[in-house]
């Protein structure tokens, strides 16, 4: 009987198509693991679920890893999914220049969440003080609600990773700052488990990663197979946007081995947003030892 592995992710993350693709095509069965995929409203909820042992791992960004480490938990990044900054700051239609943001309300999930950490940095780059020039509204359940809020002019700006900026541009909303214009290491997505789970269940974890690698390979090589999964995971139906997103993630998935620089980039921004050192050992939060055995298993 195959071991069971429960993997969680947010309800609107395009890169999660890798896991649904792997499950549909039987890749997890091929490597000897039964996988259950669980959706949570947000990536931070998904990681909390993993650390509470409701599930075994989560797809989440660097800020979630750092927040949980600061809270005394033991998250560890065991496979990279997106290690460059693919955030974009999206404005409402009435925002014509970055200066128009002064004195307005910006939508976010709350202090310490990755979208607010990045939008604080974006505001600083645009010459605004995130602590005094704007207010933050935080009562939004998910990415779709925030996009609807900026589209309606309820908030003046939001900040998200692709595909949201691509969809926003199609909707006629201005992209006030696109971090992809200046590529930098930045942990926007990773497979994260607890140190305890990784130590207690290394073989099951390797099997899950191996099946996911097979899903990533199919994602990269067969866009027609990937598109339905991209649509379902991102909650988008614009084929042009989905094809562009596929191209971006097909490149990102070439680097599955986790490394420290992308997480360090996020840590720098989180320290700036919080105004204090994080007080965590970043090296303890990245473990690249599972990728090589998973890759060997995936090739069998």
From TrEMBL:
Q: Which domain of life is it from?
A: Bacteria
Record key words, sorted = Signal
Q: Where is the protein situated, by its record's location annotation?
A: Periplasm
Domain SsuA/THI5-like per the UniProt entry, residue ranges: 18-222
Pfam families tied to this protein: NMT1
Q: Which family does it belong to?
A: Belongs to the bacterial solute-binding protein SsuA/TauA family.
Q: What is this protein called?
A: ABC transporter substrate-binding protein
Q: Which species is the source of this protein?
A: Phytohabitans maris
């Amino acid at each position: 009987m195959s071991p069971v592995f429960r993997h969680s992710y947010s309800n609107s993350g395009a890169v999660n198509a890798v896991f649904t693709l792997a499950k549909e095509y039987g890749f997890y069965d091929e490597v000897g693991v039964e996988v259950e995929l669980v959706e949570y409203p947000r990536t931070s909820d998904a990681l909390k679920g993993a650390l509470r042992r409701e599930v075994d791992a989560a797809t989440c960004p660097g800020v979630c890893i750092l927040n949980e480490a600061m809270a005394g938990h033991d998250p560890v990044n065991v496979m990279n999914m997106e290690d460059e900054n693919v955030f974009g700051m999206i404005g409402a239609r009435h925002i014509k220049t970055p200066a128009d943001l002064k004195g307005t309300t910006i939508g976010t999930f709350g202090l310490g969440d990755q979208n607010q950490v990045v939008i604080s940095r974006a505001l600083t780059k645009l010459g605004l003080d995130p602590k005094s020039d704007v207010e933050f509204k935080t009562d939004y359940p998910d990415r779709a609600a925030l996009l609807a809020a900026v589209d309606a002019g309820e908030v003046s700006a939001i900040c998200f990773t692709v595909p949201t900026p691509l969809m926003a541009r199609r909707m006629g909303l201005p992209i006030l700052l696109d971090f992809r214009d200046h590529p930098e290491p930045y942990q926007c997505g990773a497979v994260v488990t607890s140190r305890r789970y990784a130590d207690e269940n290394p073989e099951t974890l390797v099997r899950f990663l191996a099946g996911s690698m097979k899903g990533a390979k199919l994602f990269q090589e067969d866009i027609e197979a990937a598109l339905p999964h991209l649509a379902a995971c991102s909650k988008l139906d614009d084929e042009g946007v989905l094809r562009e997103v596929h191209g971006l993630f097909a490149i990102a998935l070439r680097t599955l081995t986790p490394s420290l620089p992308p997480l360090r980039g996020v840590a720098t921004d989180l320290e700036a947003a919080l105004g204090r050192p994080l007080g965590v050992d970043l090296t303890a939060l990245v473990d690249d030892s599972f990728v090589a055995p998973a890759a060997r298993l995936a090739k069998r």
